[in-house]
Each structure stands twice: as C-alpha cells, then as structure tokens.
Design brief:
The complex is a heterodimer of chains A (80) and B (201).
Chain A: H1 4-9, H2 11-15, H3 21-33, H4 35-55, H5 61-77
Chain B: H1 12-20, H2 24-46, H3 49-65, H4 76-95, H5 135-147, H6 150-161, H7 166-173, H8 177-200
Helix pairs in contact in B: 1-2, 2-3, 2-4, 3-4, 5-8, 6-8
Classes of the chains: A mainly alpha (80), B mainly alpha (201).
Chain lengths: 80, 201
C-alpha cells in the first residue's frame, strides 16, 4: 500500500489516467483508508480551475486602443 | 436569464476567412476577442504589464503577417496563444541574466514514514466551485503564482491555464515531457498550498 507521500506524488499521473493498473490499485487502497489524502486529492484536482479564474486578466482599455492603432499602422505597410 | 441566441455573431473561422481575404475589420474583431487571454498569459509569464502589452502587439502582428499560412485545422485562439507563449518565453530568456532570486517551492511536508507532518486543511474543493471568486483568494493565488520560479510558472500557465498539451509545451520550451510533468506537479502543490493557507484563516 502507498504512503501519503507516495499517494501525493502519484496524483498527476492518476488524474491524467497514466498509472499502471497495479499502481492504481495501491493508490485506491491507500485512499480508502486515508481521508486526509482524499481531501488532498480533491483539493489538488480543484486547484487548476481555481487558479485559472484568479489569473485571468483584462487588457486595460488604453493598451487595447494602442494595440489597435499599432496593428492598423502595420497593416498599412504590409498586407497579409 | 435566458440564453440569447446571437446568430449574427460570426465565428472565428468566418472572421478568419474574411481577414485572409483582406478585411481588416474582421481581423480586428478577432483581436478584440482574444486579446485579453493573450495579454493575461503574457502578464502572468513576464509579471510586467509593459512587457505583456508589447508581447500582445508582437503576437497579433505575427498572426497578421502569417494569416495566409493559417489553414484553420486548429482554432484561431490556440494558434495565437501558442505564438504568445513563444514570444513570452523568448522575452524571458533574454531576461534570464537579471533574474531575481528564486524561492523555495512550498508543498506538503512528510515524515520519514511518508505521512503528513501537518494534515491538509480539509476539503475546500466544493467551495472552489462558488460562482464569485473571493477577491482575497484571487490575490493570494496571483501572489503564489508570481512566487513560483519561472520554469515552474511557465509550465503551470501553459498547461493548467492555457490548456496546452504536454507535447505542445515540450515543443515550445524544449524540455522533456517527464520534466514538464514533474514541474507541473510541484507548481500545483505550491498553489494548492497557498489556497489551503487561505482557507485555514
């Protein structure tokens, strides 16, 4: 059976579906006996989407306008 | 509120075809649709608004100049994000010389038997689904992301925020897939830890 450390180390492969059947069995056995690791798995899994929301940014409108002006000036010189 | 159908809104693919035929307004609409995400990626990668604004310009200029080569097998969005990722990495490589001191990665600590030294803070994954993202939590995540060393932050942004595949990331960074996976895992652990700390308060 896996230790907590080994289980945590295996989470990426587990969520990617990249574990061997044997390893997955060891992980499942550990999870069924270790609630903290179940919590850890759930929160590890929730981390990317939470970060994605926190890291979304909006381009400030004056920079957006600069971008449009820049592209227009370049487009005059070159055509695609 | 009802979902309002907007059949008049052209798809990226339609706009792309118009832009390829020389319609600048169509290209500008594409830029407007995708500039926030391109800017956001560049901002998180470089941590500089000035650099991010320049990278966004370079990215859409490169897209414009290569419009004719774009066949539309991939979505316009993923195409420009790959360009933006490349441009961000190039800029970071130039900056390497003046790179700031890097921080130790945080993550759970284990004792010699492989058990937690301190148990994690319960299961907050359901609260993470709440519609509005807590402003303080958002700030904590941005801070934790900025604290990751560059190699780790890049991989995390490209995979978990931009949704690129391991192979695409390997193509951009030149690193091996196992190295990318290992960094991604460490970055996720550090960010998970930062969120855990927030919920502990």
């Amino acid at each position: 059976m896996f230790s907590c450390k080994k289980s945590v180390d295996a989470l990426l492969d587990y969520l990617d579906g990249q574990m061997s059947a044997e390893e997955e069995k060891h992980l499942q056995e550990h999870l069924s006996a270790c609630p903290p690791c179940v919590d850890f798995l759930r929160t590890y899994k929730a981390t990317p989407s939470l970060c994605k929301r926190a890291l979304a940014a909006k381009m400030p409108s004056e920079l957006g306008q600069k971008l449009t002006d820049f592209l227009r000036s370049k487009a005059k010189k070159t055509s695609p | 509120m009802h979902e309002v159908e907007t059949p008049t809104e052209p798809s990226d693919l339609e706009l792309l075809a118009q832009a390829q035929a020389g319609a600048m307004e169509a290209f500008e609409t594409l830029v407007e649709r995708h500039r926030d995400r391109v800017f956001g990626l560049a901002l998180r990668m470089t941590r500089s608004e000035a650099d991010a604004a320049e990278i966004t310009q370079e990215t859409f200029l490169a897209a414009y100049q290569h419009l004719a080569d774009f066949r539309g097998e991939a979505a316009f969005g993923s195409w420009v994000h790959r360009i933006a990722a490349n441009h961000s990495l190039m800029r970071l490589r130039h900056r390497r010389v003046v790179k700031a001191a890097e921080n130790e990665l945080t993550g759970p600590e284990f004792n010699e038997r492989g058990s937690y030294v301190e148990y994690p803070q319960g299961d907050w994954s359901r609260r993470a689904d709440e519609k509005a993202l807590d402003a303080e939590l958002g700030e904590a995540i941005r801070r934790a992301s900025d604290l990751l060393s560059e190699d780790y932050r890049q991989v995390f942004l490209l995979k978990d925020v931009e949704g690129l595949s391991y192979e695409e990331i390997a193509g951009i960074t030149g690193d091996s897939v196992p190295a990318i996976k290992s960094r991604l895992h460490r970055a996720r652990l550090a960010l998970r830890e930062a969120i855990d700390e927030f919920y502990k308060k």
